[in-house]
Design goal:
Blueprint: E1 2-7, H1 19-22, H2 27-40, E2 44-49, H3 53-62, E3 69-73, H4 82-91, E4 95-99, E5 121-124, H5 129-139
Parallel strand pairs: 1-2, 1-3, 3-4, 4-5
Bound molecules: 1,3,4-trihydroxy-5-OXO-cyclohexanecarboxylic acid.
1,3,4-trihydroxy-5-OXO-cyclohexanecarboxylic acid binds near residues 73 and 99.
Length: about 150
């Protein structure tokens, strides 16, 4: 089972960026924990972070024939990007949307997501454990190919 984790704009700054909202763990801390979780389930985890919308869309296209599931925290692109929605719909890989903070308890412009209605699942407001919960859900999906 191959799972791709994608983190969007500004999430490379986790640990230093608004820690009151996003916590003290770095992205490396989070990805290391997810890698250990995937390893113990016999799955392969890939991680991609970019601040550029086109790079994220290109990475999603690459995942079309290889990933069984995508876990994505699109950052601010959640609230703006029809292109990201279209890419995820195009590749037809089930995806889980994760947000560290509870976007529904924040500014009104964060309440709408262009992805949630086409996601396999959405986790908000649970901090880094949200990624682990999404990975647990992804590991329970049927696998496309044998590893
Ligand atoms: C976020 C929430 C978004 O509104 C924000 O733009 C982010 C992080 C979260 O993880 O809580 O960059 O996706």
């Amino acid at each position: 089972m191959n799972i791709l984790i994608i983190n969007g704009p500004n999430l490379n700054l986790l640990g230093r960026r608004e820690p009151d909202k996003y916590g003290h763990q770095t992205l490396t801390d989070i990805v290391d924990a997810l890698t250990a979780q995937a390893d113990s389930a016999g799955a392969t985890l890939s991680h991609f972070q970019s601040n550029a919308e086109h790079a994220i869309i290109d990475r999603i296209h690459q995942a079309m024939d290889t990933a069984d599931a995508i876990i994505i925290n699109p950052g601010a692109l959640t609230h703006t990007s029809i292109g990201l929605r279209d890419a995820l719909l195009a590749v037809q890989v089930p995806f889980f949307e994760v947000h560290l903070s509870n976007i529904h308890a924040r500014e009104s412009f964060r309440h709408h997501s262009y992805l949630s209605d086409v996601a396999a699942g959405v986790i908000v407001g649970m901090g880094p454990i949200g990624y682990a919960l999404a990975l647990t859900a992804a590991l329970n999906l049927p696998s496309k190919q044998q590893n």
